[in-house]
UniProtKB/TrEMBL annotation:
Belongs to the GTP cyclohydrolase II family. Residues 175-338 form the GTP cyclohydrolase II domain. It catalyses: GTP + 4 H2O = 2,5-diamino-6-hydroxy-4-(5-phosphoribosylamino)-pyrimidine + formate + 2 phosphate + 3 H(+). Coiled coil: none annotated. The lineage of its organism: Bacteria, Pseudomonadati, Pseudomonadota, Alphaproteobacteria, Rhodobacterales. NCBIfam families: PRK00393.1 (NF001591), ribA (TIGR00505). Pathway: Cofactor biosynthesis; riboflavin biosynthesis; 5-amino-6-(D-ribitylamino)uracil from GTP: step 1/4. This is GTP cyclohydrolase-2. Its cofactor is Zn(2+). Keywords: GTP-binding, Hydrolase, Metal-binding, Nucleotide-binding, Riboflavin biosynthesis, Zinc. Its EC number is 3.5.4.25. Zn(2+) binds at C222, C233, C235. Binds 1 zinc ion per subunit. Catalyzes the conversion of GTP to 2,5-diamino-6-ribosylamino-4(3H)-pyrimidinone 5'-phosphate (DARP), formate and pyrophosphate. It comes from Roseinatronobacter alkalisoli.
Amino acid sequence: MILGLTPVELINRARADLRLGVPVILRDGPAAAIILAAEMATPARLAELQMLGPALVLALTRHRADTLKARAYDGDLARVVVPAGAQVGWIRALADPADDLRHPMKGPLRTERDGAADFHRAALALAKSAQLLPAALVLTLDTIAAVENAGLTELPIAELNTALASETQLSAVISARLPMAAAQAGRVHIFRPRDGGVEHYAIEIGQPDRSAPVLARLHSACFTGDVLGSLKCDCGPQLQAALTQMGREGAGVLLYLNQEGRGIGLANKMRAYSLQDQGFDTVEANHRLGFEDDERDFRIGAALLRKMGFQQVRLLTNNPRKVDMLNDHGLSVIERVPLRVGETDENRAYLATKAAKSGHLL
Ligand SMILES: Nc1nc2c(ncn2[C@@H]2O[C@H](COP(=O)(O)OP(=O)(O)OP(=O)(O)O)[C@@H](O)[C@H]2O)c(=O)[nH]1
Ligand SMILES: [Zn+2]
């Protein structure tokens, strides 16, 4: 006999469904809702939802709602009423700010005030965790009968919320020696989250003494900076400078965390870059897309360092949040080592915005 899927397995299936444009059913006891990622909506799928019931809603985060001048009665999110006959283009324009400046008048938008927003909040969290735009069509169902035999993934929201909020458990997969330009004595460790998320890497230089403070860096993936040598940020030079300093000192550990774009994923980061070309700064661009300034789960870095046996770190960073987070999650940062490299004409304003709005130290 095959037992049912665990919540973690169901969540991963639900993420894949949303990314494919397949609806997912959320359950809360006897209550249920059907959700669809707004950016993946097609005319056919939208028509299916519109036929199931009249009360179709587009859930948006407060940041996106603020941009659209829609009232967010639920605090952190808004439930925008989808008018009968609304087309996919209307949904997409609300979800995606790409054309905000060209077509500023999207309203007036009517948002719901009464009733619960639990399904909507869960739908947005799931869309974010699938690295989609945080915008979801939500139809609360009177009865689940109409969708019961469609083979859709069904997810209890209590379990979904618990799983999304809990600390990721990581398993060590393999490690192997890697001589690098910055240090001959390098070793790459691969860690796999047990929640089905993307793998993260640790680059160990030399043989750091576990009973002494280790020179450490938490580096968030930046395809454009790390690989392409982008001049828009300082990630590539920071990565190289950190490895070089560890090589020079003979020991250190650099965590390469796959949290591209401060946790929003590369597609959304490129959407943010496109908005930056329209004149918005890095924080404003994230907000217009509906994200927080920083969506990273920094607990993963702390968990990895602890798992590797480290307790005390000298942390290479300009970001005081990283220091606080490690101190709050079982490590002690005995020194913050500044990492100021790679300033260019192109990234000067970006670095200044991070100092002014995100608390980075100059
Ligand atoms: N969303 C978004 N992400 C960006 C942008 N520019 C760089 N990133 C991402 O930001 C992350 C690097 O974060 P930073 O804020 O530069 O540095 P930090 O890691 O917080 O702090 P430091 O330790 O001082 O470097 C990487 O994941 C990059 O992909 C941007 O304009 N928008
Ligand atoms: Zn970068």
